[in-house]
Specification:
globular, 13 helices, 3 domains, alpha+beta, six-stranded antiparallel β-sheet, 479 residues, 35% helix, D-amino Acid Aminotransferase, Chain A, domain 1
């Protein structure tokens, strides 16, 4: 009888191909946005080399191969112990028979590569298309919503009609609070374009009744208000215009938005899963590092509860949310005739833990107080999982990249920092040299520090192992 390999030990990117390239198509996350902005995003993030498939020949596929990308590829080659090639989209004819791993495996990307004789790796493109879109996904969430894994109050509509239906939704929420005898909730709205991502392409509207201009709007999850208005109508008009010129600029592609109420939340963890030919492994909750006072994600980490309250929620709901998320993905695949046994890729769901005021609101509505809310699904590689794949490469000579190795990296501890200050007197080349020296110093004790985004004045870093030690050592680089 032939011994079967444990799915945890099966090569994640398979054995079919000899050439493989990572394609960091971040711009595709905003497919209803300005094409020029999308191209700039692809060009900027092309040097982030985490999700590279481990083949005989491996490398980066980028929009433009500028010197910054060449230098970063050289650094990664030395860190990973394998020479990485850099290819551009104009090289596609020479990559026939290769495997490309996009950041997000959208249908249009699959078509482009398949037409060039190139395979892609990632969730089934139809599954990506359905779950990425916030308007479509919220309709899906509502269908499968259940206690412990449910969507909050929301409404879906056309961005061009926001001032009308947003006004009604807001006042309906205020009336509900009044009917329930709730007067200490901070009123407000969260407005997200259907094709927004990670807080970008969204607006948060808060009402501060003690201010002369009480209606404050925060664009893209920033911690300080972008504008303030005396009336709700003006604030909603600002939000409409901002979304029209950002994530929803092409209303012929996607005009819808999702409007939900501002809630009292204790924390917002993420949950990622690895899928290898239908076998799903949860990576558990991860923490989102957010700008102080804002709600846009600026980094990720292994989940560390903020207090006893969130620790209890993690203990009670971490496995349950994983089970429900997997069930949701499988049910969605089945309803669209997708064979889940042939699905491979990463998927993430952003969650929201209700705070004490939200629990009281639920009690007064007659609902089971405790639950975990869904914010959005990210049917793709994320900041967190891209970093985990980079750490797998950095282990060197570990063999093929597997789910088991990724799980072990999560257990070891991980922190990604999107904006770490580069010393003012250092060039990027000098800073990279300092990171190399620091990584070599800490590696014998199982701690790693990798440079993932060589930018100034702030660089992107990956820390693994003893995070406290790594951060203390990094602080010394400023001197």
């Amino acid at each position: 009888m032939k011994n079967e390999i444990d799915p945890l030990d099966t090569p994640l990117f398979g054995d079919k191909h000899t050439k493989g390239f990572a394609y960091h198509n971040v711009g595709a996350l905003f497919r209803a946005g300005d094409p020029a902005i999308r191209f700039r995003l692809d060009s900027h993030y092309g040097k982030r080399g985490g999700h590279i498939p481990d083949m005989q020949t491996s490398g980066l596929l980028v929009a433009e191969a500028d010197q910054a990308i060449i230098d970063q590829a050289d650094y990664l080659s030395k860190t990973y112990g394998k020479t990485l090639e850099v290819k551009t989209l104009t090289d596609l004819p020479s990559l026939r028979g290769s495997l490309v791993v996009p950041y997000i495996n959208l249908p249009e990307e699959v078509t482009r590569f398949n037409n060039a004789g190139i395979d892609t790796w990632g969730l089934h493109p139809e599954l990506v298309h359905i779950t990425k879109n916030k308007a479509t996904a919220h309709q899906l969430f509502s269908k499968y919503s259940q206690n412990g894994f449910e969507v909050p109050d929301h409404i879906v509509g056309d961005v061009r009609e926001l001032p009308g239906f947003g006004h009604h939704f807001y006042h309906d929420i205020l009336k509900r609070y009044a009917d329930l005898g709730i007067f200490d909730f901070k009123p407000g709205l969260i407005v997200r374009a259907a094709e927004s991502d990670g807080g970008y392409g969204s607006c948060r509207l808060e009402v501060h009744k003690d201010q002369q201009q009480p209606f404050q709007v925060f664009n893209d999850g920033v911690p300080e208000p972008t504008n303030a208005y005396t009336t709700l109508s003006d604030a909603l008009n600002h939000t409409k215009e901002y979304l029209l010129q950002s994530a929803n600029s092409k209303t012929d592609v996607e005009p819808r938005i999702v409007v939900s109420r501002l809630m009292d939340l204790a924390d917002s963890p993420g949950l990622s899963v690895v899928i290898n030919n239908g076998h799903v492994t949860s990576l558990g909750w991860n923490g989102q590092v957010q700008a102080e006072g804002g709600n846009a994600c600026i980094g990720t980490s292994s989940y560390v509860p903020k207090n006893e309250y969130t620790a209890e929620f993690q203990q009670q709901y971490e496995q349950q949310t994983a089970d429900n998320f997997i069930k949701l993905l499988k049910q969605t695949a089945k309803s669209h005739n997708i064979n889940f046994d042939q699905v491979s890729g990463f998927a993430n769901v952003d969650l929201m833990i209700p705070g004490p005021k939200e629990l009281e609101y639920r009690r007064r509505l007659g609902l089971t107080p405790e639950t975990v809310y869904l914010a959005e699904i990210n049917p793709r590689i994320t900041n967190f999982t891209d970093a985990l794949l980079a750490l797998e490469w950095a282990k060197k000579n570990v063999g093929r990249i597997t789910t088991r190795g990724i799980v072990q990296s999560v257990a070891a501890g991980i922190l990604t920092i999107d904006k770490h200050p580069v010393p003012k007197d250092s060039t990027i080349a000098e800073y990279r040299r300092k990171i190399i020296d620091l990584d070599q110093k800490l590696e014998p004790n199982g701690t790693r520090v990798l440079l993932r985004m060589p930018d100034q004045p702030n660089a992107g870093l990956i820390l693994s192992g003893n995070i406290d030690t790594a951060q203390k050592e990094l602080a010394l680089l400023k001197n």
